[in-house]
Amino acid sequence: MWINLFPEIRAMLKQPNLSHLYNRVRTLSASLAARLRGLAITAAAGLLCTLAVANPPCPSDLDGDGMVTGADISLVLLDFGACSVGSVDPPSISAVSPAFGPTAGGTTITITGTALTDTSSVTVRGNTATSVVVVNDTTVTAVTPPGSVGAANVQVTTPGGTATLNGGFTYGIASPPPSWCTVLEQTPNATVVPDATVRANIVATGFPWRVLDKGTGIEMLLVPPDTFTMGCSPYDAGTCSNNEDPTHQVTLTKAFYLGKTEVTQKQWQDKMGYNPSYFQNISDSPSRPVEQVSWNEIHDFCDYTGLRLPSEAEWEYACRGDTTTAIHSTPERPNGSNKIEQLDSIAWYGNAFGHTHAVAGLAPNAFGFYDMSGNVSEWCNDWYGDYSAGHATDPTGPSSGSDHVQRGGGYYGSAHICRSSARGHEPIIYSWHGVGFRVARTP
Predict the structure, then answer these.
(1) How far apart are CA 273 and CA 279, in angstroms?
(2) How confident is the model at residue 267 (pLDDT cuts 50, 70, 90)?
(3) Residue 342 backbone zone (phi > 0: left; psi -120 to 50: alpha; other: beta)
(4) Less Cβ crowding at N or C end of the chain, within 10 Å?
(5) pLDDT digits (tens, 9 = 90+) for 335-352
(6) Which residue, 210, 150, 149, 225, is CA-closest to 177?
(7) pLDDT class for 5, splitting at 50, 70, 90?
(8) CA pair distance 404, 394, nearest whole angstrom
């Protein structure tokens, strides 16, 4: 106000004989300020109303109360300043598909995630991908650069930052699929096989991950080579049996396929022409595991189909699914558990109501296999015998014996025999409604 800008005038007006004039000027100044503010609001409101008339129904009614008022102006003023262009949220990557490609590069990959609208670059193992196309805020495509065999991190950069999916893409040399199978998935699904290292090991074999055996319709998953500790894994409710010691290192040098589930009654009957199972003629019997089959009968099935039984070492490694605990991974414990109550989500044992159940009814392990614990015990190919303490490579058990190994426990038993390291054994002619099997195959 001018009255505040000229202190000498203000001082003069404060003289006694001019005090009434000073007060009058102050009053007028305040009134003028209020009028000016009112005029500004009115002018702005008038502009908004003009826009509203030109663009019905009243787009300037920002707060939706049916009127253009100072409240709407306040909403505009809250956004006063330069408008941002595009997403400034930090990006994320949830998946890359396909997750496998040749070392020469040239694979068109689709990256899904969030806040990808302003993607400026994509790299695979630190090398720049080409032909980057932003499809929308959740999808970007790119072409992979060349790379060496193995898992590679995929990175996306936007104004909001950089997102990384560790092991999101794997370079490899794909082998022709085996003639006996139909390929269902070339590379492992991260939701089924969550460990990136395991997925990379599977891809590095060059063989497809999930296949269907053409002769039997049995779905099988690839298990990669690895080294693991075989033998006793104690649990919170007890100790191991003596035949689980000594623990020892085992190296499996060759990849192998293993049945995703136990062989079902339908799969057996379709090939063998009869059903030996005790739990048959029930609505879901075709999907229940075949049982009451001896080791000898199973070998007839395998001879007829080209399949085989897994070795005991193959079985235990596949059961553990890269865990070292008494119980393999569960939805609640992805790294495994030593607590018996965790069995309820993965195994039919004391909770089975005295009978078998349809396969794949509970949660799988971290390799994607169902019912490795519980439902029915599973025959292995090995003769039964004591373990040795030394490091073993591709062990196949004793050269002879009287019994063959059974693993996994069943609906009839306690939690103790459902542990990953628990061992059983029976003569080769033994059959019972608590014993079945799953098949393996060499690529």
Answers:
(1) 17
(2) very high
(3) alpha
(4) N
(5) 999 998 899 999 999 999
(6) 210
(7) very low
(8) 18
HSE-CB for 42 with a 13 A CA cutoff:
6
**Strand pairing report for 150-158 and 161-172:** antiparallel
Distance, CA of 251 to CA of 230 (rounded, Å): 10
The pTM of this model reads 0.70
Nearest to 199 by CA among 225, 167, 153: 167
Structural domains for the chain:
2-78 (no CATH), 92-173 (2.60.40.10), 196-441 (3.90.1580.10)
Residues 6+ apart with CB under 8 A from 28: none
- Supply angle C-alpha 398, 404, 410, rounded to 5: 135
